[in-house]
Amino acid sequence: MNTQDKPVTSYLEAPTRTVTANGVTFAYRELGPKGGIPVVFFVHLAATLDYWDPRIVDAIAADRHVIAFDQRGVGATTGEVPDSVEAMAEDAYAFIKALGFDQVDVFSFSLGGFVAQALIAAHPDLVRRLVLTGTGPKGGKDIDKVAGLTYLDILKATVTRSDPREFLFFNRNAAGKRAAKAYVARTTGAHTEVQDAPMKVKGFQTQLGAIKKWGRGTPHDLSRLTQPTLIANGDHDRMVPSVLSEDLHRRIPGSELIIYPDSGHGGVFQYHEQFAPVAAAFLNR
After folding, report:
1. Which residues form the AB hydrolase-1 domain (predicted)?
2. Distance CA 45, CA 26 (A)
C-alpha cells in the first residue's frame, strides 16, 4: 500500500469533499478504513463540519469508516436550510444514497438526534445501529423552549466574549468551565484544511423554528424502533432536558443509557475519555 492509499485517521486532517443529490451539493469529510457499514455523524444546531469533537470522531474512526456532513444550507453545502426536521432527514437520506450506501450506523448529537429519529421513521431499513446523545423524542417536553434559551446564552457569551457553546453545552461550575474551554479549543480553527463556512443567521433561525415544530409535534411510536440504540447525556442538560434521554430509553426496546454526572448538554464531550471507547465498542458489536 502506498501512502496515498492509507486511510486518513485524524478528523482534523480529513479533506472536505462534495457529492450532489437532489440538486444539493453536500460537503462532507471522511476518515478511517473504508469497507463495510460506515458511521455517519449527524450534527447539532448551527453546527458545521468544524464543530465535531475529534476526540470522539477519531476513536470511532480507528476501526470504522466515518463520514460527517453539512446539512442543506449549512457550512459549505448548497441550498436553503429546511424548515422541518423531517425535511432534514430526507436530505440526509439523499446524501447517504448518493454515496452509494444501503445501510449505515448513525452517531447523532442534539438536533442531529431528532434528524436520526425522523430518518428511521421514514426509512427504517437504512440504519443498523444508532447512537443518540444530548437529544430527545419528537413532542418531548420543553424542546420547543430551546430558542429562548439559545438566544439568552448567546447574549451571555457575547457579553463575556466567549463561545456560546460554553454556556449551552456545559455547567457553569469549575469542572464545567474547564471542560468547556478544552472542548472549544479542540473544535475551533483546528482543522488543517480551510475552515468550513460559518452558519448564516437566517439558516440558524430556520433551524430553531424546525426544533420548535419538533418539540410540539406528534410523538413517534419508538417501540417500533428495532435498531440497537445507545443513549447518552449529562445529568443537567438545559437545552434538551436530561429526563428526555431517560424517556427515550424507556420507549426504545433494549436501548442502553449512560448519564454522566455533573455535566450538561455536552456531557459526552466533557466525559470524552470515558464515552468515546464505549461508543466505539457499541458501534463495533
Report:
1. 39-268
2. 17
